[in-house]
Specification:
alpha+beta, five-stranded antiparallel sheet, 14 helices
Length: 532
């Protein structure tokens, strides 16, 4: 549904897809080319090639606060400037190998795919979701330059990437705020591999600044975001777009070649975010990022957060308004609000739901009685509480056609009604969430599968004891931790499971049964393993 809307908004002349992607788009929207046929040179038609600097290079959708994605248009000039500056900044040559870890629906994948080719280097397409498989690709693929989110840097260290026969020269943190704790861990484990912190936007051809992070940096300050790339400018401005003094907090705004053409088919939002650049040549535009930051007296740029409600979850920008709009489309949901919840393992997206008067249509209603599951006496009144695991599974299933996986909340909390401020707006500060305490200590089961799975859960969630009815996500889990847990289960039991199996069976005892069923299934089960 979401993919079809995005293709329709593009008014695409041709759609390139594979067998799995065909059902996602309207066949009547544009001619469809099969990527397998293109690779074999068998397609009857091919897209025309143009390379003028002012032309559109690509359109990539970002999350939109109005409930629909924002299609950001990037120019050929912006794309080529980013690729060339990346080659120059890291001194890439024939001996290098760039790790391609991001799905092609994310802007980071563009430079990952093209930069190595532009430098005469190699590009290694790797599984960027599974820490174990990415670590194996680093070892056996000879990757020298890698850009990943901070939580994946930590996951690679947990996988022991520093002990492998890697050729890494540079690791670039991106997508969300890099912490000094992760930077310290990297410097201790991999002192010979340079660590960088990049900052950028899909609307500006991805990275706009980059900083070298060293053990000698001042850790009383935020990790710096660095200096702008060549042909790029960064300004710290007030509401009138006037520059603020050093040390004063303002909005971070981007100028230069990387600034895109705006949002396709949306002149109103384009006019708000892309404004005339008072510091650039005639006709130049400035992108208002919505981020706040400052330039210190010694000229260092620091990122200090958002001026609006936009959040970043494991490097992916999410507008809560788009998630809230999808939640309100669910039967029985009268209102919805979305916030992030900090855990020891990063942040999780939490949905706060209020249902209408007819509980029979609520997503957590019993299919037989129509009443809410769990504490049924508090179905309408009472404190907020997490919805039951089976209810969460139904909510997640209903959202799959409306939102991509990373935008589906990890936890859903039910309120009698959402708290509101005096002006009638949702009081987001009052939307507190306290995870449920773990269930009683689990009894010992003399069962290899159950013991191995439970040990994997305890390890990745960093809990000494987890009950059989505990929920992975309610204990602070998220998709990256789920992948790390699956890696451990795979190594121990020699079976492969998709991350969707965790969302489908979030309780420990249910997941154990899913693993047991997979173990009994016929066919090859041995996973790819890292070299010893």
């Amino acid at each position: 549904m979401r993919a079809a809307r995005m293709v329709a908004a593009l008014d695409a002349g041709v759609v390139i897809t594979d067998g799995r992607g065909r059902p996602l788009v309207d066949r009547g929207a544009a001619p469809m080319l099969d990527i397998a046929e293109l690779l074999r040179g068998e397609a009857a038609h091919g897209p025309a090639l143009r390379a003028r600097a002012a032309d559109s290079a690509y359109v990539i959708d970002t999350s939109g606060s109005a409930g629909v994605p924002k299609p950001a248009v990037v120019t050929v000039r912006g794309l080529t400037n980013h690729v060339r500056q990346t080659v120059e900044h890291f001194g890439l040559g024939r001996e290098d190998c760039v790790g391609q870890t991001a799905p092609t629906s994310f802007d980071i994948s563009v430079w990952q795919l093209l930069t190595g080719l532009a430098a005469g280097a190699r590009t290694r397409i790797a599984d960027g979701a599974s820490p174990a498989r990415l670590a194996a690709a680093i070892d056996d693929g000879g990757i020298t330059v890698l850009q990943i989110v901070p939580m994946m840097i930590a996951a690679l260290l947990d996988e022991g990437v520093h002990r492998g026969p890697h050729r890494l020269c540079a690791v670039i943190s991106t997508g969300e705020e890099l912490t000094w704790d992760i930077a310290r861990r990297w410097h201790v484990a991999c002192p010979s591999v340079a660590l960088y912190n990049a900052y950028g936007f899909a609307e500006c051809a991805d990275d706009v600044t980059i900083a070298t992070v060293t053990p000698q940096d001042d850790r009383t300050r935020p990790v710096p975001i660095g200096a702008p790339l060549a042909n790029t400018s960064i300004h710290v401005l007030d509401d009138t777009l006037a520059a603020v003094p050093f040390g004063v907090v303002g909005e971070l705004c981007v100028g230069g070649d990387g600034v895109g053409r705006g949002y396709l088919g949306d002149p109103r939002r384009t006019a708000i975010a892309f404004v005339p650049d008072p510091f650039g040549p005639p006709g130049a535009r400035l992108y208002r990022t919505g981020d706040v930051g400052r330039r210190t007296e010694d000229g260092v740029l620091e990122y200090l957060g958002r001026a609006d409600r936009q959040v970043s979850v494991r490097g992916l920008r999410i507008e809560p308004g788009e998630v809230e709009a999808a939640l309100r489309e669910l039967p029985g949901v009268a209102d919805a609000a979305v916030k992030t919840h900090k855990t020891p393992h990063g942040v999780s997206l939490v949905a706060h739901l209020a249902y209408g008067g007819d509980d029979r249509t609520a997503p957590d209603a019993s299919p037989t009685t129509g009443q809410a599951r769990g504490d049924q006496e508090h179905a309408i009144d009472g404190p907020a509480r997490e919805v039951a695991a089976d209810a969460y599974a139904r909510i997640r299933h209903a959202l799959r056609d409306r939102l991509p996986r990373h935008m589906i909340p990890s936890v859903c909390v039910r309120w009698p009604s959402l708290p509101r401020s005096a002006n009638g707006k949702v009081d987001h500060a009052a939307l507190t969430y306290v995870p449920s305490a773990p269930h009683e200590a689990a009894e010992i089961r003399d069962d290899q599968v159950a013991a191995a799975v439970r040990a994997a859960w305890c390890a990745v969630l960093e809990r000494p004891d987890i009950g059989w009815r505990d929920n992975f996500f309610l204990l602070g889990g998220h998709s990256l931790l789920a992948l790390r847990m699956l890696d451990r289960v795979s190594r121990t039991l020699a079976i492969e499971l998709d991350v969707e199996s965790v969302f489908a069976h979030p309780c420990l005892d249910e997941f154990v049964e899913a693993v047991r069923t997979r173990a009994r299934a016929p066919g090859p089960r041995s996973p790819r393993r890292r070299p010893p």
